[in-house]
C-alpha cells in the first residue's frame, strides 16, 4: 500500500479459514444456501425439511506545564497521517433517509449459517442477506420474535454458529432504493486516517462528529464510508466509539479476524486507553470505579445509561490523574481512562458518578461548566481513544496503536493555565 500508516513489525499470520463440518442439515440445505418454504413453516416442520445443528521527559509542552505529577502517555507524533479537525462542524450531514417504496416477500425463508458467518451477530447477518429491507423494520421483526435461530427466539446481539438454521419471516423489501453516496469531501480525510493495517484488520483514527454507522436519521457513518472507499471488501466494525468520541477504532477485513477479535475482547485481551478532561479534581492519583451500568429509556424516548447496583451489568474503569488546569468554570483534570469492561457510555457515566463529569459532555455533563468551557473554545466532548494494545492468537507479536490528540482538543488544552 502506498498510503502512509503504521505497520507492526510482525510476520503474516498463518491462518486457516474455519471450514464447515460438512454435515447435512436436510435435503437441499447447504451452508450459505437459502430456499423458500410455505408461509408459517418453521424449521423442522414438514414444509421446511431441515433439522437443528448440534527515560527522558518526552512529554509535550502542555503536559510538562501541568507540573511534575503529569505523566501523560506517549502519543503518536503529529507527522502521522491524521485528520484535521476543528471541532466546530459535524463530520456527517444529518439528512434524513427518504422513505423507500416497499413490497412484501410472501415466503418464509430458512438460511443455513456457513463458516464465514460463524460468530456474526444475527442483526448484521440479516442486514447482509436482506438487501433493501429497512433497518427499522428488520429490528422490529426481531423484537417481535419472528426471526428464529434453531426454532428459538434470539436478541439482535445473538451470535451465530456454523450450521445454525435462521428462519426469516416475510419481510418488506425496498424497491429501487437510491444508494447512499458519501461525499468525496468526507472520503478523502478517512483515506489518510489509517493508523495501522495488515492483511486482516486496520485501525483508523475516527474523527469526532462521525457516527460509526448510519441509522437514526443519519444517511451514512464511518463503516459505510470505508466500504465505499474499498468496495468488495468485507469490512466490519470490531467495536464502537460514541459519535463525539475520536481516536482508535478497529475494523476487520476478514470474517475470521472479526471472530478472533470479538473473542479477544470478551476475554479482556484488548487494552483500551482514553484521554479525557474532567470537570473538578480526581480525589486520588488513581481511582478504580466498579459500578454496574444499566441502559434506561427515559420519557420522550431518550436513552440514558445509569449506575444500577441491583440490575446493572458489571462495569469497571480505572482513572489516572495526568495533570490539573485552571478554567473559568474551576479546576479541570486531565486523566487517562482504562476500560476494564466495555459498556455503552461507560467512561462518561463513571466520571459523572464520581462527581467529575467529562468536559463538554451534553448528556451526562455539567451544563453550566459546559457553557463556560464553550466560550473558551471547547465545542465538543473531550474524550479521545488514544491507544490500543492487543495480540491475536494467530499473531506472533502484539500490536500497539496510538492516535495523536486531535488538533481542536490540543489547542484548547494548550490555552489552559496549569494548576499547582
TrEMBL record:
Keywords: Isomerase, RNA-binding, rRNA processing. Pfam families: PseudoU_synth_2, S4. It comes from the Bacteria. Residues 1-104 are annotated as: Disordered. SUPFAM superfamilies: Alpha-L RNA-binding motif, Pseudouridine synthase. Residues 10-37, 92-104 have a biased composition (Basic and acidic residues). Responsible for synthesis of pseudouridine from uracil at positions 955, 2504 and 2580 in 23S ribosomal RNA. This is Ribosomal large subunit pseudouridine synthase C. The lineage of its organism: Bacteria, Pseudomonadati, Pseudomonadota, Gammaproteobacteria, Chromatiales.
